């Protein structure tokens, strides 16, 4: 048993967070008390912030970078505006583990004092997931484990690059227990809620980032993804999120359990209010040649992809994954976007999952997450005595394929993984048979539906599939749940138990205001192409 | 216990090999009986083959490809010439597991019958390591395990590509027990010896390839490397060999123990009589985009590297690795080549291994080879009852860091590996400090000396170091042991037990005629640069 009660340790972390927020100056005035917060928090910033702060925090990123570079607005003013807006987001969604008031303003002043603006991100405020660590001294991180509260931490390879390019780190954000929920709830910081509807999850595990950016308390943040942890929360909060192919962006220096496990890899990636910020972040991250420092990374520069002009983009629409039928608003989003693509002249076909066995893929994936049966993680929880949360139970103990494996069982599992990857690659290759153009990208749901009510995110297939395959995936906002258009399909007969649970979860009323997003997935290593495809798809949707 | 004695099973494999060689037509005449074979076999082909066969098999590869493409010599005639020369190599060195007489000639006839020559390798005979499998029907492979004799096998991703590009597979070559010796001896096919001196090893594990190519019984072959298995035998047999960064060339489809193990990866690579054949093979292998079929591969085309013209190449010479002092001929080779580089205007500095702890690197590497303590492999040997050979004992049981690990011990080991890789990358980065140009490549020994007497290859550090780091390495011939120039250093005081054994092994007389080669190593992923560097180094040596 722990000597100190876990609640006392957690309280210390919460007090540290609260103390960091208490520095906000001028203090936030006019916010409702928690019990009176509206369901949808998106308008709260306008009620609290100055017009000038609203103007600054709602500028397009390209414009923000331009005014910073041209020194038409000081870095300090921009930083203060985002700090205050992030504080509002915290009240609304509980998305922060720490507001870096002092260090961010000191950094801003330093940047303002430079004779010349320097770096591709000069003066841009960037928010970060807590367990990644941070630039600076006396940094702690706990990765949402009570046992790790007060554990000293350092910076990491990616953050050092962003720092060198002149950014301002100003807020650290929440993640769930074990960092392995598609929601964001921990015994350390409590539950993060969705900016659009506080009865819904912001998703996870990078749910703090998503909620913060969904409130525009940040325009660019860094998440991590091993099963959907960037894409799911980006989708649920109506923002953009990219999970690149692994080993392009460094994770080195992040704190997590299972260090040294390589059965299935995580990756960092950008989460943002705008599409262009995704490629900006990738460009900046890779232009530093991070493989010189983290030699596990692929030595391959970021090379923007130019789509061929002599043929249309070929998009395969995945209407469902053969396991769980998406909710009506998701189907509508797929219809709307694929129709727009067709109208714009693209070659739209179907990504038929029959025979592709996404169910088996999930069983392999879950086993790859916990080749020790979850022993290390459960031990970490036991160490502090903090309760095991339901979604932790779900992802470890309730997965039938998860068990402690010996070395030969591990090799067998990895061989199964590799065989499945080759099998899926072959399915993709076959789209090019008979002289047809190969499918360029898959358009698919990033989840079975919009953000779920709390503790209901128990199906990972729509994101984790692409982690198993290590295919890059980008999520973008499409629409929001519409009670008129998105009525429940009556009389649907679920094809399995998971499908039944998901079907029964839906009613348009529960999902009020919830954003609905889609995902574009490309073959492994085709990160640049996925972003190029997103651009033409959004153009087809009538966006800039 | 095995039902059938292992000797009987091995005999069957030997008989199959002999039957394949008995097809040679016209039969080889005038070869000495085994007891009367000369120490150096390099002149044997001239005593047995026709002038025309010698002419064909000794053409530069570019010329050979040109005459084949222009149909000035038929594929069949070229194939027959190499088949007969390979048969001579077999008598001299015992390098073959099978001569593909029938299928190669039938393939040649097919290629001759095509209206147009097709493919970048049109008509080129290529030899292959036995455990990689083969294109065709009724293929067997045993990977040198008696237990696996008669086991059906198929082709693999790389060989399919070479086949599509018009090559002729004509010979399969030996590898040692477990494919984990730096020599080539197995209970299935016996011992392969060095073309230059039959008392010496050809190296291993791709020793059959090296001996065959060293006899010019093949001009281009495919080996595999996880600890030196391409580079060591290439060095010992005076040929060229490239170990690329892993995951550039596919291994998928090869037969080996420990399938699914990913602690340290092997890679295929070219072994050749000429430098240019290395880039040819890489170019051809990657132009097929093999990552579409083997999705573990890096999606990165082969992009020949152009050395900068505004500064000299910066080469760091590794005189020794801090563990085992190279023999005198190796030191002389380093001196000769580094002097030539200096004269050609290159920036030649030292790669000082002090503080880089190559000894620790080896301990990690050995542990990574056998995270199950070697259990699977030893079980495979026990299954047939075949004896465990001394170099198998050496690489498993005699390595102190090798033991069966549980999952958490495995993760710890992998984390140690990653930390060492980052540490070494940082050392390389530091060569660029203070405004200096970063070191481009390291010039280093591929072994502590020339080919060792049999069963003496017990130090892997000069090659395995670069497997642990996953740095590409290319080996090229430099000189041969010279009793006059390469006298033993008297009075040297070994710094450790391994150093003592290696020191005592040397006397110039034992190494008569042995080739001495060097290795050029680049950073991970810099395969193209390593080959570009080799070209300028060889030019500096006065070669074409």
TrEMBL record, chains A, B:
InterPro entries hit by this protein: Amidase_CS, Amidase_dom, AS_sf
Enzyme Commission numbers on file: 3.5.1.4
Binding-site residues for substrate, renumbered to this chain: 179, 205, 226-229
Active site positions: 129 (charge relay system), 205 (charge relay system), 229 (acyl-ester intermediate)
Presence of the UniProt keyword ATP-binding in the record: no
Keyword flag Membrane: no
MF GO annotations: amidase activity
All residue ranges annotated as the Amidase domain in the record: 77-531
Keywords assigned by UniProt, alphabetized: Hydrolase
Catalytically driven reaction(s): a monocarboxylic acid amide + H2O = a monocarboxylate + NH4(+)
Domain of life of the organism encoding this protein: Eukaryota
Family: Belongs to the amidase family.
Name of the featured protein: amidase
Taxonomic path: Eukaryota, Fungi, Dikarya, Ascomycota, Pezizomycotina
């Amino acid at each position: 048993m722990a000597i100190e009660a876990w609640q006392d340790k957690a309280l210390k972390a919460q007090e540290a967070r609260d103390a960091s927020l208490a520095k906000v100056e001028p203090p936030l005035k006019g916010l409702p008390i928690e019990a009176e917060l509206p369901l949808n928090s998106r308008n709260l910033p306008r009620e609290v912030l100055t017009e000038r702060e609203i103007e600054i925090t709602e500028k397009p990123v390209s414009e923000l970078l331009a005014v910073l570079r041209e020194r038409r607005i000081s870095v300090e003013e921009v930083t203060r505006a985002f700090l205050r807006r992030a504080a509002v987001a915290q009240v609304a969604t509980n998305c922060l583990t720490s507001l870096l008031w002092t260090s961010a303003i000191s950094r801003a002043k330093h940047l303002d004092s430079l004779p010349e603006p320097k770096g591709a991100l000069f003066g841009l405020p960037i928010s970060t997931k807590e367990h990644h660590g941070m630039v600076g001294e006396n940094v702690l991180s706990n990765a949402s484990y009570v046992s790790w509260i007060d554990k000293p931490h350092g910076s990491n390879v990616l953050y050092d690059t962003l720092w060198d390019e002149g950014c301002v780190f100003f807020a650290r954000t929440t993640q769930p227990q074990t960092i392995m929920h598609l929601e964001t709830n921990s015994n350390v910081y409590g539950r993060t809620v969705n900016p659009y509807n506080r009865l819904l999850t912001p998703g996870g595990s990078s749910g703090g980032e998503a909620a913060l950016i969904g409130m525009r308390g940040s325009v660019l943040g860094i998440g991590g993804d091993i099963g959907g942890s960037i894409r799911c929360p980006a989708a649920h909060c109506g923002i953009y999120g990219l999970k690149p192919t692994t080993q392009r962006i460094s994770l080195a220096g992040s704190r997590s359990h299972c260090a040294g496990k390589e059965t299935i890899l995580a990756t960092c990636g950008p989460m943002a209010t705008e599409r262009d910020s995704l490629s900006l972040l990738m460009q900046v991250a890779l232009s530093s040649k991070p493989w010189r420092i983290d030699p596990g990374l692929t030595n391959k520069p970021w090379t923007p992809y130019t789509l061929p002009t002599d043929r249309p983009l070929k998009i395969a629409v995945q209407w469902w994954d053969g396991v769980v039928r998406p909710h009506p608003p998701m189907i509508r989003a797929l219809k709307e976007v694929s129709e727009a693509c067709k109208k714009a002249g693209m070659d739209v076909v179907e990504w038929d999952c029959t025979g592709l066995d996404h169910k088996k893929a999930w069983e392999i994936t879950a086993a790859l997450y916990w080749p020790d049966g979850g022993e290390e993680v459960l031990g970490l929880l036991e160490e502090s005595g903090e309760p095991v949360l339901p979604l932790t139970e779900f992802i470890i103990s309730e997965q039938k394929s998860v068990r402690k494996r010996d070395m030969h069982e591990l090799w067998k599992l990895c061989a199964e993984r590799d065989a499945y990857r080759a099998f899926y690659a072959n399915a993709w290759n076959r789209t090019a048979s008979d002289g047809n153009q190969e499918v360029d990208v898959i358009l698919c749901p990033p989840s079975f539906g919009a953000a779920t009510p709390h503790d209901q995110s128990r199906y990972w297939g729509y994101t984790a599939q692409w982690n198993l395959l290590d295919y890059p995936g980008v999520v973008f906002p499409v629409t929001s749940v519409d009670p008129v258009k998105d009525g429940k399909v009556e009389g649907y007969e679920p094809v399995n138990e998971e499908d039944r649970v998901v079907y029964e979860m839906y009613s348009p009323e529960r999902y009020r205001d919830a954003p609905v997003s889609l995902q574009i997935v490309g073959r492994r290593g085709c990160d640049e192409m996925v972003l190029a495809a997103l651009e033409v798809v959004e153009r087809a949707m009538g966006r800039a």
